[in-house]
Every structure is written in structure tokens, then in C-alpha cells.
Amino acid sequence: QVQLVESGGGLVQPGGSLRLSCAASRSIGSIWRMGWYRQAPGKERELVARIITDGGTTYVADSVKGRFTISRAAAQNTVYLQMNNLKPEDTAVYYCNANPSVGGGNYWGQGTQVTVSS
């Protein structure tokens, strides 16, 4: 089991930045992979970025490549999503996700709203 708590969402103007945080209830070193997904109104949930916690290998979706960065802070049991040059189409609820092991378990946070608007 792992509980995930997201924070850092909010309202930002186009071109602005936000950093989302996902705090895990246990050491992220014991979690194989963590990631960020988002879901805009009327759309399916989509993968934004994910990271293999051991080694730090990352994947970032093409739609946000060059603007978003995923990282981890093992000492804080936290994974971050740094979002720069935000666009209105980035508006969505952002969810943290954890897979403790390959093929075993899939956990979600409660989500945090990100709104990009002038």
C-alpha cells in the first residue's frame, strides 16, 4: 500500500510556471515507478511524465517535452513535476501515480487542479 498526496496546483497565466509535489507515505526507494497523469474536462486521463525511482530514468510525453520535468527527492519521499511555459491546453487535474513493483499495484493521489488562463 502507498498513499499519495499532491500539492502545488493553482491558477497561472500562460507562460507561467508551477511545481507540483507528490508526497508518498513510504520510501520512494521502495516504489519501482512513479508518474504524473492529467485529465482535462471531457478527455481521457493521459500520461504526462514518469520516473523509475532507482536510477532516475524518465519519460516525458511529447506534448510537454521541453517544458515539463519530472524529478525525485528520496530524502523527502517526494516526486516533483516542474512545469514551465504553461499553456491553456495544460489545464487539467493532475494526478500522481505509483507502481510499487513491475506488474504489481497501481495507486493514485486525489489530484490537484492546474488552470492556465489570462
Write a concise synopsis of the structure shown.
Helices cover 0% and strands 49% of the residues. With 118 residues, it is mainly beta. Strands 2, 4, 5, 6, 9, 10 and 11 form a seven-stranded mixed sheet that branches. Strands 1-3-8-7 form a four-stranded antiparallel sheet, with no helix packed on it.
Strand content: over 45%
Overall geometry comes to: globular
Tally of DSSP helical segments? 0
* Cα end-to-end separation: 40 Å
State the share of residues found in helices, binned by percent. under 10%
* Biggest beta sheet summary: 7 strands, mixed
* Helix-strand pattern: EEEEEEEEEEE
Oligomer: single chain
Residue stretches low in confidence (pLDDT < 50, at least 5 long) are none
Radius of gyration over all CA atoms, rounded? 13 Å
Q: Kindly report the average pLDDT value.
A: 95
| Structural class computed from helices and strand pairing | mainly beta
Number of strands: 11
Report on this structure.
About 0% of the residues lie in helices and about 50% in strands. It is built from no helices and 11 strands. The strands form 2 sheets. Strands 2, 4, 5, 6, 9, 10 and 11 form a 7-stranded mixed β-sheet that branches. A 4-stranded antiparallel β-sheet has the order 1-3-8-7, with no helix packed on it. It starts with a strand and ends with a strand. The model has no long low-confidence stretch (mean pLDDT about 95).
